[in-house]
TrEMBL record:
AB hydrolase-1 domain ranges (all copies): 29-237
InterPro entries membership: AB_hydrolase_1, AB_hydrolase_fold
Pfam family for this entry, one: Abhydrolase_1
Protein name in UniProt: Alpha/beta hydrolase
Organism: Halomonas rhizosphaerae
Assigned keywords, A-Z: Hydrolase
Region annotation (Disordered) ranges: 1-25
Signal sequence annotation: none
Molecular-function annotations in GO: hydrolase activity
Lineage: Bacteria, Pseudomonadati, Pseudomonadota, Gammaproteobacteria, Oceanospirillales
Superkingdom to which the source organism belongs: Bacteria
Length: 259
């Protein structure tokens, strides 16, 4: 794994890249976008495994305010999902990504969809994993339950292990944004309708933060496959069942246009 800090006007962004032992130069890199409490480190072994199995380079980065990236300058705006497509430009320029595959987990899946639409000339395929396409009661109930769990000091200590003194900002950005009035009617529909590349929506059948209506909506509003792939897991397939997740991804990555 190679690590780098990208200089941006908003502050440094921490990024990492994994290279497979044998790389096919015709295969575009896969860019990973993390969830609301995530960062590069919390992908754990998944990027290395994905690189080795797919023969593609894999790139991940910490969004501003997360992990090893610089603190966010203020409260997270309600437009943060759409805004990430602009922040992504710094990563794309640094790694010279003429073409790429966008793979996002949870809220990172929404960001990946925004990127696929706003960087359409470069995004050859979109993969969403446990992504939210709209705000539903199940999502809010899951967040409330998690928020209660973080009342325990040990839980916040684990979060601080990855985000340092930004941990409280990370938690509040997640819980407060999703429960805000500005986010009550949020949907990913406009972004999904802008996606022109092949799209694969994966979801866990036991996902705590979204029903199967979420991936079905993503699949319906994008070029497809028409039916999402449902895995026997919860919200975090890359930790719960990484082998099954990679096995599900490989046929799509081999030929997205065959879907």
């Amino acid at each position: 794994m190679e690590s780098v800090t990208l200089d941006t006007p908003a502050g440094g962004l921490h990024a990492a890249r994994w290279r497979p032992e044998t790389t096919d130069p015709t295969r575009s890199p896969i860019v990973l976008l993390h969830d609301s409490l995530g960062c590069v480190a919390l992908w754990r072994e998944f990027p290395a495994r994905l690189a080795a199995a797919s023969g593609r380079k894999v790139i991940a980065y910490d969004r501003l305010g997360y992990g090893k990236s610089a603190p966010h300058p203020g409260p997270q705006p309600a437009s943060f999902i759409a805004d990430e497509a602009e922040a992504f430009r710094a990563l794309r320029e640094h790694f010279r990504l003429a073409r790429f595959v966008a793979l996002g987990h949870s809220v990172g899946g929404g960001m990946a969809a925004e990127i696929a639409g706003q960087h359409a000339e470069g995004c050859e395929a979109l993969i969403t994993v446990a992504a939210q396409a709209f705000n539903e009661p199940r999502t809010l109930a899951g967040i409330r339950e998690a928020e209660q769990a973080f009342q325990h000091p040990a839980a916040m200590a684990r979060l601080a292990r990855y985000h340092g003194d930004k941990a409280d900002w990370v938690l509040r950005s997640w819980t407060d944004t999703w429960h805000s009035e500005a986010f009550a009617e949020w949907t990913l529909d406009p972004a999904l309708r802008r996606v022109s590349c092949p799209t694969l929506a994966l979801h866990g059948e036991h996902d705590e933060y979204g029903s199967l209506a979420q991936p079905r909506r993503i699949a319906r509003l994008t070029p497809g496959p028409v039916e999402p792939l449902i895995l026997a897991c919860g919200h975090v397939p890359h930790r719960e069942c990484p082998e099954r997740l990679i096995a599900a991804l490989l046929p799509f990555l081999a030929d997205p246009t065959a879907a």
